Structures are given as structure tokens and as C-alpha cells.
Amino acid sequence: MHVVLAGGGTAGHIEPALALADALRRQDPSVGITALGTERGLETRLVPERGYELALIPAVPLPRKPTPELITVPGRLRGTVKAAEDVLERTKADCVVGFGGYVAMPAYLAAKRRGVPIVVHEANARPGLANKIGARYTKHVAVSTPDSKLRHARYVGIPLRRSIATLDRMAVRHEARAAFGLDAAPPTLLVSGGSQGARRLNEVIESVAPALQRSGVQVLHAVGPKNDLPRPDNMPGMPPYVPVPYVDRMDLAYAAADMMLCRAGAMTVAELSAVGLPAAYVPLPIGNGEQRLNAQPLVKAGGGVIVDDADLTADWVRENVLPVLTDPGRLHAMSRAAAEFGRPDADELLVGMVYEAIAARQA
């Protein structure tokens, strides 16, 4: 069996594709896997690092929404679709799995032409153009939110790294807190705004950290590598405030924490729910509003709270986050709700859909 994965461009497309690749190989070490990508995407680094073949095709950026520019897409796509077809022919592909973005569209069109089964995975609550079109070509459509409107949607979740999907937070909590220089006992708030949305969160948490410490809460703060590192005033006898440029072991950060303050990207929401970590979500106030839509089902289930970026202040943290962190019963209830909503087995469920799509073609 050979599976072609189309999920290049951003980590939000690539990481789920690689998690699926790992799951396919766990089930059948002999399965062939090729990832489609372009010269300018993160896949040029991430895919080879994980040991998978990368096949490059020309990049054809797609408009997020229907616009007059959409009329020019078919002409610009011809060469890219032909390149994708060549990859399918060379690998004798049994299935194409697309994760959205400008690599997925030519892969879907090439698979449609050659009669190769298609599986679509949509990580965001609001699907992009490529997956809307891909969903017309197959009944095998996996989504990350239970109320998705995408055609033929089946709620699967987002395939995650095994270090996250299999994480037992309580089992490694002591090790995790020691690794970050945190105290063993106090309730712990993890803060990260990601690579692009950190500034606002950084400003607020720096101002409110002393109040949290005085209330018995310690803070692990990933400020982002491009931002200045705060100089905390850790007074003797108070829980620490630990700022770090970035965290390369998010599994340990999740294990160390009792709650998180963060943005609401699809991967973040999926990871936190999978590990049962409640969060205060602050959707990025840009784009088409998809971050709020990503977090809303989990918040509705009781696994977190949500606040508009403009309303995030030190007072809001004191009034809405601090009471959760200092109430063990409420923390436990929110953690359980998040875990019940999460899909740590999304990679295996998506593997099942791949085999289902192949079997349907052979039937």
C-alpha cells in the first residue's frame, strides 16, 4: 500500500499529516508514504526530519474565499495538477489524504482524474476552499469539530504527536515541574501565545504575575523567541514566575500545568482537550474568526473559558482565571470535561478511514 499525503505550507497542515504517517507505519511498517509539498513550505524541513519522502510540486496559492481571483486558478493549477498526477503514477498511490491548503487542491484534482481514493481532513472549524472542493469528491471526510458543516463530515479530531496523545499528565507532573524550575505543589498556570499572537498575552501576564504569585499560583510563561524575556521579581516564599523564550517539550509543559492561557488555534485546542488541560482561550482578533469557532465547542462542553482579545486584562485574569486555579474541585471538573471532549485516538481513527476509502474503491 502507498499513501500520498497533501498537507504542506504550515505546521497546522503538516503536523497532522505526519501524525497520520506515523500511525500508518505503526499499523503496517511496509506501507509507502509520500508527502506532497512546495519549495517554500515548512515541509521541506519537517518531512525529511521525520524520515518520510517529500515530493515537491509548484505552489499555487488559493484565495481563502470565492473572489474574482478564483477565475484564474484553473489555468494556474494545470501544471501543478500534472506534477501531482506524476507523483501518484510513480508511487502507484492507493489513497490521497489531504489536509487543506494549496498543496491539497492539486492533489485532490489529480486523484479525481486518476480514480485514486480521497480522504479529506479539516482541522479548522471553518473549512478552506481546497477542502470544500475535496469534500465533493469523496464521502471520507474527517473533521476536528463535532458541528462542522463540511459535506460528509465525520467527527474524528486532529491527529497528534504520540508524545501528546499518550500523555499522562499526573504521572510525569513531578518530573515536568522540576524540569522547568517550578515548585512541586502550587497550582500552575501555563501561558503561551504561539509564534504570532504572543505580544498581548505577554503584556497582560507580566502585569498580573505578581498578584498570581501572592495568591499562591506559579506561572510558566513561554514568551516567544522574538520577544524580550521578562525579569521576574521572585520574592522568597512565593511561588515562582518562570519566563522562557520557548518550549520545545510541550508534553512536559502540559504536564506541569493545571490551566493554560493561550490562543485558540485548532492544534492548540486539540492538544489541550486530548491531555485534559483546561484553558482560558483568547482567539486571535484577525482572519475570519475561526479561532473562536475552534474553541467554542470545547468551552461549551465545560473544558475552558473564552475571552475576546480586547477584553483580556490583568483584572480579567484575576477575576476569571485565578478563581479556577485556586479551586481544586473546579479544576478537576474542567479537566475531566476537556478530556471527555478530546480525541487522542484521532490518528488511528483517520487510519481506519484510509483503509475504508481504499476498500470502497476495490468493492
From TrEMBL:
GO terms for molecular function: undecaprenyldiphospho-muramoylpentapeptide beta-N-acetylglucosaminyltransferase activity. Its EC number is 2.4.1.227. Gene3D superfamilies: Glycogen Phosphorylase B. GO terms for cellular component: plasma membrane. The keyword tRNA processing does not apply. SUPFAM superfamilies: UDP-Glycosyltransferase/glycogen phosphorylase (SSF53756). Keywords: Cell cycle, Cell division, Cell membrane, Cell shape, Cell wall biogenesis/degradation, Glycosyltransferase, Membrane, Peptidoglycan synthesis, Transferase. It is an enzyme of class 2 (transferase). It catalyses: di-trans,octa-cis-undecaprenyl diphospho-N-acetyl-alpha-D-muramoyl-L-alanyl-D-glutamyl-meso-2,6-diaminopimeloyl-D-alanyl-D-alanine + UDP-N-acetyl-alpha-D-glucosamine = di-trans,octa-cis-undecaprenyl diphospho-[N-acetyl-alpha-D-glucosaminyl-(1->4)]-N-acetyl-alpha-D-muramoyl-L-alanyl-D-glutamyl-meso-2,6-diaminopimeloyl-D-alanyl-D-alanine + UDP + H(+). Pathway: Cell wall biogenesis; peptidoglycan biosynthesis. One of its GO terms (biological process) is regulation of cell shape. It is a peripheral membrane protein. The keyword Heme does not apply. It is found in: Cell membrane. UDP-N-acetyl-alpha-D-glucosamine binds at T10, A11, G12, N124, R161, S195, Q291. Residues 188-349 form the Glycosyl transferase family 28 C-terminal domain. It comes from the Bacteria. Residues 3-142 form the Glycosyltransferase family 28 N-terminal domain. Pfam families: Glyco_tran_28_C (PF04101), Glyco_transf_28 (PF03033). Cell wall formation. Catalyzes the transfer of a GlcNAc subunit on undecaprenyl-pyrophosphoryl-MurNAc-pentapeptide (lipid intermediate I) to form undecaprenyl-pyrophosphoryl-MurNAc-(pentapeptide)GlcNAc (lipid intermediate II). HAMAP family: MurG. Belongs to the glycosyltransferase 28 family. MurG subfamily. This is UDP-N-acetylglucosamine--N-acetylmuramyl-(pentapeptide) pyrophosphoryl-undecaprenol N-acetylglucosamine transferase. The gene is murG.
